[in-house]
Amino acid sequence: MAVLSGQFAKGDGRPRNVNAETRKFRELCRFKTPTALKLLCDIIEDEEEHIKLRMDAAKYILDQGHGKAPNFIAIGDGPILPEQLGLGQLDALILEHLATDTVKDITPHE
Q: What is the domain extent for residue 101?
């Protein structure tokens, strides 16, 4: 049977079955998840540890548990995502910020 443009032939793409070695590796990683989480928590709580490492560990846990926070820009009545702006609008916002040297609260409020 001929494959038309935009269609896939059987067997194309990523294989559905994962080989035994990959399955075993994933099982071992899942088995070590509590240990890895405890290590990250220990790093966060160790006041003698470098602050950057502590912050990175905390950010990693928060990102994994709650998802990464979107970046918002305050324009007019409320925040919008940077992807919704054109380059000219972004340039104007940057220039405005540099000129006023003020910080705006862009935290979304419910």
A: 71-110
